[in-house]
User: Fold this.
Amino acid sequence: MTLAFFIISITCLLLNAFFTLFQFFSNGLVLPQVYTKGISDNFLLTYNPICTYAGIFILLIYICITTMIIYHSFEKTQAPDIVFFLIFLIACLCDTSRVIVPAFQLSGTFSLFLLKIGNLHLFARLLAPLALMGSSILSTEDFRQSTDRNSIILIIISMFFAEIIPLNTAVILPNFCISYGYVKAIRTYSLLIFIVSTISLFNTNRKNEYRQIMTVGFILLCIGYSLIFYCYNIVSLAAGVPILGFGTYIYLNEIHKHYLWID
Assistant:
């Protein structure tokens, strides 16, 4: 499954890169009209479409590299943590579909295709925090036997709410995401899940007398993901890339050490 996901990820990366470069050099690249009200005019904080594109392609590269690392490091380990982390990577891959909006010039079309792309964005936005919660809470001994069932439940929950939450296809956000309703509620939901997951991971490591470096990596991973998701300026891009990469390395490395010690 991991190898198949890697092939899908690398295919998406190559296709998106080819199509974007083709449009750029043929002068067919048309940027969508995005909603920039309330965004700072500061050079480092203002909307920059290059940063949005860079954030999407860096996320695609991150997915490919991380999936290959997981394939080589956890090939013989049936770790629930890794199952949920792969679901997180699936959410990240769904999120990169934002690049389709400018690629197919969907801004202002109000088409069914644009609506479905919006549903996919929202699905990724809802699933990613749940997947990270699963890797810290649902991977403990109490839930270890129900990993497959819990994974399916998280996906179904995300799909359900992604379909019922209203979208405004007339508004394209700076990160090329279609505007959706209940923005503050969804941001609060994501923040609460990250906090609860971090506390749970901290308590689990303290109970088992593990080093808290894994918790630090998890926190950096959450922060880095959030910065890349909202990446549309220089600051979020410059900060998000190293934080996401460093946090992922620490987190997966500690999980790997943990399972080596158990084996």
Observations:
- The longest strand covers residues 167-172.
- The CA atoms of residues 129 and 194 lie 7 Å apart.
- The mean pLDDT is 87.
- Residues 234-262 form the longest helix (29 residues).
